[in-house]
Amino acid sequence: MDKQILKTVMLDNQKEVQRYEVFKRNFHFEDFGNYVLVGIRRAGKSFLIYQRIQQLLAEGTEWDNMLYINFEDERLDGLQVSDLNLIIEAHLEMYGKRPILFLDEIQNIEGWEKFARRLADEKYKVYITGSNAKMLSSDIQTTLGGRYITINVYPYSFREFLEVHHTAYDELSLLSTESRAAVMNRFIDYFHNGGFPEGALLAAKRNYLTSVYQKIYLGDIAARNAITNTFGLKIMIKKLAESVKQPISFNRIANIVSTTGSKLSTTSAIKYVEYAESAWLLQRINNIAAKLAEKESNSKYYFTDNGILNLFLIDGNTSLLENLVAINLIRQFGKEDAVFFYNKGVEVDFYIPEEQWAIQVSYSIKDLETKERETDALIKLSKVLPCRRLLIITFDEESVLQMDNHARIEVIPVWKWLLMLR
Questions:
Q1: pLDDT digits (tens, 9 = 90+) for 206-230
Q2: Would residue 263 count as lying in a domain?
Q3: Where is the DUF4143 domain (predicted)?
Q4: Could you tell me if 289 and 295 are in contact, meaning their C-beta atoms sit under 8 angstroms apart?
Q5: Which domain holds residue 168?
Q6: pLDDT at 328
Q7: What is the pTM of this model?
Q8: CB burial class (10 A; 0-12, 13-18, 19+) of residue 195?
């Protein structure tokens, strides 16, 4: 790799970062921490890097003390891990100073973690982003040796979506008919089109969402993992979208795809699902009542952003509602062993052991049969697992149900529930 190219890229990047108008998200970076930011493509990881650089510039740090490089720049094609030290050499030749490093989408460089470990050992301050969950694998974490703080980055929360649209959502505003209507209009947009930062202010979002999905499907999943059966992968993702509310086994996935004429083995189904999870397209939730083997093989799968899920659905409001609740629970409580569903004699959509929350999701409970089904399931679960809070999340219905056994069930609209999350 020619160091002159690296210098040109770094200088171009400085202008790009400075000119970008960034919506400030609520992330606090410690001055002495090293960070790895991971999440789905276009979730806003680069924007957070820009936010941090702009903050440092405002505080008086100059570019001679900072180095930003995006490894998705086509001018860096062919860059190998053995070339990474040339980046520091190029900066030293330009400025003669030891930089704070901002390394964007570094997962494109095989073996990057050893370089990152050495930087930390040599007391550099480093910020890294990546679009692959394998960056959090045990092997890589072992190599990094606890020297980095990991932040999971998701598309905008509903609060952030309202803020970027300058829509007030404080308690007084929600009492006003006009302000409440504005919040609901924004929610309808967020509900159907998701919260990718670059698409948040677009009037027509579907083309943008299709483009993002194609990059994830073809680049982050198919190309990165050398998948030749791209049709089988495409059908698998579509079928998972259509069954987003139901537990599904790997055997079932393979059989469904095979009926379309694209043969897919159970082994391949397992790998394809893992690849989709690694690209942060899918999030997995397991059955807390299942044995270990079944937990891993008969899970529910949700899409990290409602906008991408909605590309596959026709009249999919019930699926979008449950997906939105699932992703926000995962965002708040974590990906691993924090959010479950319950299925053993009774079905409950979500159970949070840390908070002892039991949650049902129902678009509406105006129908008496639906109401009885949802409340009965929550009451039965409360006799099996500790439940401090029983919730039914609806699209826009609100009440408190006081049951005969003295159980109290809150019925809350999803938009209001989202605003309550921290």
A1: 999 999 999 999 999 999 899 999 9
A2: no
A3: 220-363
A4: no
A5: 158-199
A6: 98
A7: 0.94
A8: buried
